[in-house]
């Protein structure tokens, strides 16, 4: 009883842990190198799982095209901006902005697929937006220099977080026909991460300085990057898939979106500084809003 609900909460916890680990790599690993590590590891994990489940047999030619397009928006673009958002704004704000994926997906479904939006879902969108605004807030009392710096970082992080959420929503929209046609989830993720991994490996050979990592290679950093991929894409997505297999989709989607709340005590333990009350309240509103959209 309640096994699916516990699995969904476990997925949210794993994704929060992944964000925390990625934040530890800030200044130690470049964005494109981190993306390369993460996606190669993700492809290895999900492709192996697809072999075990026999999921490759569920794949047809047109599925690959849909999943490749999904990979472009949901992984190649969104993963890069996700890592950059964590580096710029931290894991808490990034997790909160990631909550906008549900409203974006709802709006895109309405505009592209002609799906309807009822009053409950509209209220959910409002609550997600209100929660994000409340939790992010304005820079606190500080010197003018500190306030200007925090504002600049906040704006950059917010912009990157918005692109991440929109990219994820577009990726989900593009993958929806293939998933509705019965493609096994691990296989779909393996195709998506595989295309993205090839893309970032090819980027490593492009002779442009912004695409190169200036930081020295570190086995410890590699271990953190792969571990973050294990918790986020490997274990986190596996728990989510298992929860969806046996639970109510709306409840599972809501509980798995609790990352903005779960990450707060993690940050408290890591930094020794208690999050502001508005951070807790805002994260809670975002989860409630996601629940109204999903249920």
Q: Layout of helices and strands, plus pairs?
A:
Layout: H1 3-24, H2 31-53, H3 61-98, H4 101-112, H5 119-136, H6 144-180, H7 185-203, H8 219-246, H9 249-256, H10 259-271, H11 277-294
Helix pairs in contact: 1-3, 1-8, 1-9, 1-10, 2-3, 2-7, 2-8, 3-6, 3-7, 3-10, 4-6, 5-11, 9-11
Structural class: mainly alpha
What fraction, in percent, of the residue positions are helical? over 70%
Distance between the termini: 20 Å
Q: What's the count of strands?
A: 0
What is the 3D form? globular
User: What percent strand?
Assistant: under 5%
Low-confidence stretches: 138-151
Radius of gyration: 19 Å
**What is the oligomer described by this structure?**
single chain
Number of helices: 11
Secondary-structure element order, as H and E?
HHHHHHHHHHH
Average pLDDT reading: 82
Largest sheet: none
Overview of this structure, please?
By secondary structure, the chain is mainly α. Helix content is 80%, strand content 0%. Helix 1 runs antiparallel to helix 8. The radius of gyration is 19 Å and the shape is globular. It starts with a helix and ends with a helix.
């Amino acid at each position: 009883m309640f096994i699916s609900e516990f699995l969904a909460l476990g997925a949210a916890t794993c994704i929060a842990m992944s964000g925390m680990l990625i934040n530890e790599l800030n200044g130690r690993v470049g964005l494109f190198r981190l993306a390369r590590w993460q996606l190669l590891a993700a492809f290895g994990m999900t492709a192996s799982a697809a072999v075990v489940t026999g999921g490759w047999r569920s794949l047809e030619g047109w599925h690959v095209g849909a999943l490749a397009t999904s990979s472009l928006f949901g992984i190649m673009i969104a993963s890069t901006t996700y890592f950059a958002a964590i580096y710029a704004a931290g894991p808490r704000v990034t997790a909160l902005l990631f909550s906008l994926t549900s409203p974006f997906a709802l709006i895109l479904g309405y505009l592209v697929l002609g799906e309807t939006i009822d009053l409950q879902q509209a209220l959910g969108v409002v609550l997600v937006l209100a929660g994000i605004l409340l939790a992010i807030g304005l820079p606190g009392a500080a010197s003018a220099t500190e306030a200007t710096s925090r504002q600049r970082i906040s704006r950059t992080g917010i912009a990157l977080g918005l692109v991440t959420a929109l990219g994820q929503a577009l990726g989900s929209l593009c993958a929806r026909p293939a998933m509705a046609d019965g493609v096994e989830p691990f296989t779909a993720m393996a195709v998506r991460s595989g295309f993205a991994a090839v893309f970032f490996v090819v980027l490593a050979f492009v002779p442009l300085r912004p695409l190169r990592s200036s930081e020295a290679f570190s086995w410890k950093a590699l271990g953190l990057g792969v571990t973050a991929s294990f918790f986020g894409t490997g274990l986190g997505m596996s728990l989510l898939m298992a929860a969806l297999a046996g639970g109510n989709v709306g409840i599972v989607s809501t509980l798995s979106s609790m990352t903005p709340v779960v990450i707060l005590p993690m940050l408290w333990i890591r930094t020794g500084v208690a999050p502001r009350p508005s951070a807790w309240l805002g994260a809670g509103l975002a989860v409630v809003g996601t629940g109204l959209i999903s249920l």
